[in-house]
Design a protein that fits this description.
The protein is about 30% helix and about 15% strand. By secondary structure, it is of the alpha/beta class.
Length: about 250
């Protein structure tokens, strides 16, 4: 059994020293990993139990977050490279990164760099988010109705960038020509990817892609199809099978 520690960066009051001490203790006790939480904002409406949806869209849960809008919590992503520098054995990750708040290609390239900073200890957790108030604060309200498509495209872009010298993508939320994105991850073919869907049934098609291990079948299929020179991917909306979701061309050498 592997033990993981959820660092309390999302709390009404937290200090760097607390996070540092907890991380050091987890490493001393041979925990497998430490994780931070992705929370961009706490809407003032949450203080009054007036969010648009119950917590995590889970029936029976309050329309409220466990932290006050006046709380002094820390953002999760900036803590990840800090954790890489503070540890030598622990795996590190954010549970989870809401992809609609980030540009997919930028996120993929940053993850690759952090994998180097940590010596190949990065876990990548992704999800769609659930709180429209947070989407508004992240200037991503237009993505909310299609957030799971954004997650799917982010997963495709991540794996394409991580496993090809050059990569091109033309989709709904990302559209770019062949580019190089710098260093590839230390972990091959890429860091393990964990997906969180909570109770939202529309997340099921993404979860079925089997993205939770670095050697999953979908990953192997794409690597075999892309070759070593580069890859061009165009989502194929008429296909329902993960392995045929993209139309793939071999790029010129």
């Amino acid at each position: 059994m592997k033990l993981a520690l959820y660092l309390p960066n999302f709390r009404d009051k937290v200090t760097v020293k607390e996070l540092e001490d907890l991380t050091a203790l987890a490493e001393e006790l041979d925990f497998d990993s430490v994780w931070t939480l992705d929370r961009i904002v706490v809407p003032e409406a949450s203080d009054h139990g007036e969010l648009a949806y119950s917590f995590g869209m889970i029936p029976g849960f309050p329309k409220q977050l466990p932290v006050s809008s006046r709380g002094e919590w820390y953002q999760g992503w900036p803590l990840i490279p800090w954790l890489a520098a503070k540890t030598t054995k622990l795996r590190i990750g954010m549970s989870i990164t809401d992809t609609p708040y980030r540009a997919p290609a930028v996120l993929a390239a940053e993850c690759a760099t952090i994998d180097h900073l940590s010596g190949g200890r990065l876990n990548v957790g992704v999800g769609a988010g659930w709180m429209p108030e947070e989407f508004a604060a992240a200037s991503a309200s237009h993505i909310f109705p299609r957030r799971h498509t954004h997650v799917r495209e982010t997963l495709e872009i991540m794996q394409g960038i991580w496993t090809n010298e050059h990569f091109e993508y033309h989709g709904e939320f990302a559209d770019f020509d062949l580019c190089g994105f710098g260093a590839k991850p230390v972990q091959q073919p890429h860091p393990p990817i964990f997906f969180s869907g909570l109770k939202d049934p529309s997340a099921q098609p993404i979860a079925s892609r089997n993205m939770t291990s670095p050697g999953g079948s979908a990953s192997r299929t794409r690597r075999a199809s892309c070759g070593s020179g580069g890859a061009r991917f165009r989502p194929n909306s008429t296909s329902s099978t993960p392995s045929a979701r993209w139309t793939i061309w071999r790029s010129a050498a």
